[in-house]
Specification:
By secondary structure, the chain is an alpha/beta fold. The chain has 2 domains: about 1-80, NAD(P)-binding Rossmann-like Domain (Rossmann fold, 3-Layer(aba) Sandwich); about 90-205 and about 245-375, 3-Layer(aba) Sandwich (Rossmann fold), CATH 3.40.50. Helix content is about 40%, strand content about 15%. It has a 6-stranded mixed sheet, covered by helices on one side. Strands 8-7-9-10-11 form a 5-stranded parallel sheet, sandwiched between helices. Helix 1 links the parallel strand 1 and strand 2 (about 25-30). Residues about 85-95, about 235-245 and about 380-384 have low confidence and may be disordered.
């Protein structure tokens, strides 16, 4: 039987402990930097980092935020058991797991009922947080995810077509103002978000990260954890309270320091010098639309609303570039049922409809979904 320690206490450590296969693994206790403050955790001994050099165990399971810790043991005995799925920044996010498993379950349900039409939603966080699929008349699978770029939009669409065939009859392609200048592999989110997409699709895009360690870690996980541990991880996490964002982004209530933080964030978002990605993303866009046309799938391309503070900083030329690419390239595809719904400057969206300087809150999401609903109905025509 393999003997293990868990480094860390709290939600992450609890998740790791919950997933262990107790028929193969014996948990000896927990390790914490400031262990002297405590004697036990969850009924197990709590050791300091220095203590573990005197203990007899096989491996230490790291269940804390990533940071440099000088463990007095061989490096190969320190295991990051969930790193092959995603970094802990995502692992502790119920939203991440709800998106991942809900999309897969919805896809499976649609496959089991081919007599019912179903739609697909792709896009990044603006779409994932900005739409409420339950408002639409037909079921939609939400495959949008934070930081998703055009490459993965295309991969998600192709996968849905393979799985669902003619059952898939409509897609909502959520886009951002900088859609064609955005490439996940060039973004700062790469190390965490790319793992998600590799797990979902098995494909890297412009990525040089060595994946052999991740694949080896999956095998290690199978030895440590119970059968169906990935599903159990999802269930464990989604038992935590999941709060739909009801915050209202009221600029008038922000301090000057908070406003400065908002400006800095917006300047980072607005800084999109990746002109080389435009031509590649345009090709992905054309392939996306061509797949839809070939499979008789209606397309609603939707640009969400943004607050005044975002629009005052974001470069107008990049926004217009996005609009032109959408319109010009959609016109190139024959037999395409296409509509472009541009809500970027919709005056009905006020500060009270936004959760932050970029994203809609639940009230804004409900409003935007209601506004899109007429365009999504079967009787709607193309929008110029």
């Amino acid at each position: 039987m393999k003997k293990v320690l868990i480094y860390g206490i709290g939600n992450k450590a609890d998740l790791v402990a919950r997933l262990l296969d107790r028929s193969k693994v014996q948990l000896l206790g927990y390790v914490k930097d400031d262990a002297l403050k405590y004697e036990q955790y969850k009924g197990y001994p709590l050791y300091s980092v220095a203590d573990i050099s005197h203990l007899h165990f096989d491996c230490l399971l790291y269940a804390e935020d990533e940071k440099a810790v000088d463990f007095p043991i061989e490096r190969n005995r320190v295991i990051h058991p969930l790193q092959s799925l995603s970094f802990f920044a995502f692992i502790t996010s119920p939203e991440f797991w709800m998106i991942r498993f809900k999309a897969l379950e919805d896809m499976q349900l649609a496959m089991e009922h081919p007599e019912r039409n179903v739609g697909l939603i792709t896009g990044m966080s603006y779409t994932q947080r900005g739409l409420v699929p339950a408002i639409f008349d037909e079921p939609f699978i939400l495959a949008a995810h934070p930081s998703q770029d055009m490459f993965y939009d295309l991969i998600m669409l192709a996968d849905a077509i393979d799985r669902l065939g003619p059952t898939l009859d409509h897609v909502i392609m959520g886009i951002s103002p900088f859609q064609f200048r955005y490439d996940l592999s060039l973004s700062k989110a790469i190390q965490s978000r790319s793992l998600y997409y590799y797990q979902q699709t098995g494909i890297w895009h412009h990525h040089t990260m060595e994946i052999s360690g991740l694949e080896a870690q999956d095998k290690e996980n199978d030895e440590l954890f119970c059968e169906n541990w990935r599903r159990n991880l999802y269930e464990a996490i989604t038992t935590y309270p999941f709060h739909v964002c009801r915050d209202k982004f009221l600029l008038s209530r922000l301090s000057e320091q908070e406003m400065q933080t908002v400006r800095q964030e917006l300047y980072k978002v607005a800084d999109k010098p990746y002109t080389a990605s435009v031509s590649e993303n345009t090709e992905f866009f054309l392939k996306y639309l061509s797949l839809c046309a070939a499979n008789h799938i209606r397309v609603t391309c939707a640009l969400p609303p943004f607050p005044d503070c975002f629009r005052s900083i974001f470069p107008e030329e990049i926004l217009e570039e996005t609009r032109q690419i959408v319109r010009n390239n959609a016109a190139k595809i024959n037999n395409l049922d296409f509509r472009f719904v541009d809500s970027y400057e919709d005056p009905d969206f006020t500060e009270e409809h936004f959760a932050d300087e970029q994203h809609l809150n639940v009230y804004g999401a409900e409003l935007w979904s209601e506004k899109l609903k007429p365009f999504i109905s079967r009787s709607s025509g193309s929008v110029p």
